[in-house]
Every structure is written in structure tokens, then in C-alpha cells.
Amino acid sequence: MTGLRASTGEPCRVLVLDDEPLILLDLEFAVEDAGCTPMTALDLVEALSIVQNNAISAAILDVSLGRGQTCEQVARTLAAMGIPYVLHTGDLDRMDETVRNLGGTLVPKPTPAAVVVARALEPLGVRHV
């Protein structure tokens, strides 16, 4: 089963950015279960490379990436491209104002991976074929 964007009929590709490998793997499987192709990244550089070199339909971004990094640069790049994204974070109390104002849909951790993916795909009108 393949997920296609209802508006264009193109394959659905979802960027998943998380610095925790087990969470990344769980989300990767949920994206596949939704019929889309996961494009996974463990860090900021890898995520930016994926965005710049692939047609991404939507994204799931962990806010805090360790070593003082956040997903802000990726989120701003996606927003400039008109690509919807969710901010998946367990750090709601520690997020600074800049991250709070990124504009993505906020999904707190822990939330089941299937629910996170569904929230990321909502704006796309993804259908399965």
C-alpha cells in the first residue's frame, strides 16, 4: 500500500528527525504503516540534506536534538517551502520562545507513533492505493 497526496497524486515522503534512535525507528515504522516513505535523520545536518535533495511531503521534527541543537533551521526551511510539519517534543517546559513560535503543529512526547504520523499527514489529504 502506497500513500499518495490527494492533491497531486505524488508519492508521500515524510522526513523524520529525532536524535533518539528508538523513537526514530518507531516513527519510521509508523510512516511506512501509513503507506508513505520515511526519510530519516538523526541530526540537523542530515535532515537539511534530505530536505534539500528530496521532494518531502511532510515532516516530524524532534525539537531538542542534543548538543544544544534544535530543529529550528529545518522547521524554517520547511515553512519557506510550504511543507507542513509537526514538532514532536518532550521539552514543552524548556522550549524557548523562538521554538514556540515556529508555527508547526505541536505533538507532545509521549504520543503513540501512529498518532504523530496521522497529525503530520492531516494537511496532505493522504490516500492509500
Give a quick rundown of the structure.
With 129 residues, the chain is α/β, with parallel strands linked by helices. It has helices spanning 21-33, 44-53, 72-81, 97-100, 113-121; strands spanning 3-5, 13-17, 37-41, 58-62, 85-89, 105-108, 126-128.
How many DSSP helices?
Answer: 5
- Indicate the proportion of strand residues: 15-25%
Helix content: 25-40%
Calculate the terminal CA-CA distance, rounded to whole Å: 6 Å
Pick out its properties.
129 residues; alpha/beta; 5-stranded parallel β-sheet; two-stranded antiparallel sheet; 5 helices; 36% helix; globular
Give your account of this protein's structure.
There is one protein chain. The chain is about 35% helix and about 25% strand. It has about 130 residues and is α/β, with parallel strands linked by helices. The strands form two sheets. The chain has a five-stranded parallel beta sheet, with helices on both faces. A two-stranded antiparallel sheet has the order 1-7. Helix 1 links the parallel strand 2 (about 15) and strand 3 (about 35-40).
